[in-house]
Amino acid sequence: MTTTLRPEGPESPAAGGRTRRWQICANGRPVGALRTTAIRRGNQLWGEISELEVHEGRGRGRGTFGALAAEEVLRGWGCTRVDADVPEAAPAARGLAVALGYTERMRNMAKRLAAPPALPAGVAARRIDAEAFPGWLADAKEGYLADLVSSGLGAEQARAKSDADHQSLLPQGADSPGVALRRLYGDAPDPLGSLWLALRVRDLPDGAPLAWVMVVEVAEAHRGAGHGRSLMLLAERECLAAGVRDLGLNVFTGNAVAIRLYESLGYRVTNRVYGKPLT
To answer: How many Å separate Cα 61 from the centre of its chain?
Structure first.
């Protein structure tokens, strides 16, 4: 039996790269599908494999073939690394990713919001304005860079991704539309931590907006005092004030402290991201 990939439609542009959906075919008959995407990160192209499904003949290696063939497509497109998004409800796909040498890099978690939570006594939030923005951005980029490196990326790849992501998501600095940039303060003049919240990263299947925690960071001198929880409560308050009731986030797999915090607040894993270099 011959298994091949066949284009399901034409290529489309995607974030400085391209994307295409493919049929997985056995002897010319469609038995599944997947999508390959190349995204430009600085001077590099990153590959993504998503929407992988086998609807006929599961357990016959068709998913394995599809993933390997997708990697070849991405190599041909010039990608140096590949990520694969795996829904939490698909344990077989997680097993496939591990078998093919992928390592879990991060998790997507989400929560449906209800009533606005109260912030702890003695803390207050202030907007990060144009004057404070450059210093905050430098710290945010360095923190993100460290997380990317610890998740398995090379230093050059991580810096290219950090620079590209911040430029794309904050094109107008402190005045970028659709974001909330806040710092949390106590009695002292120095901030306890900061929050970057995107109020609409996409729409859910029911049409409702999904907000996303881009950065939540507690100042080093104030860690271990519960301020991370306060910042997450602030994120929920900002969402509900904007009429958004669904909030998601990424957390790197090695950050066990953050994962425990999010779980304690009612966030649940919806998706896992696995990755590996394309050599």
So the answer is: 28
Q: What is the pLDDT of residues 13-23, one digit of tens each?
A: 987 899 999 99
Alpha carbon 237 to its chain's center:
22
What tens digit of pLDDT does each residue of 22-63 get?
Answer: 999 998 899 999 999 999 877 788 999 999 999 987 778 899
Q: Please give the pLDDT value at position 210.
A: 97
Contact criterion met (CB below 8 Å) for 182 and 140? no
At 247, is the secondary structure helix, strand, or coil?
strand
DSSP for residue 221: G
Which residues pair with residue 106 across a beta bridge? 252, 273
Q: How far apart are the first and last CA of the chain?
A: 28
List the one residue out of 41, 2, 44, 42 whose CA is nearest residue 24. Answer: 2
And the tokens for 195?
């929050």
- The answer to whether 192 and 203 are in contact (CB under 8 A) is no
DSSP SS3 for 232: helix
Closest by CA position to 109, among listed 93, 87, 81, 139: 87
pTM of the model: 0.85
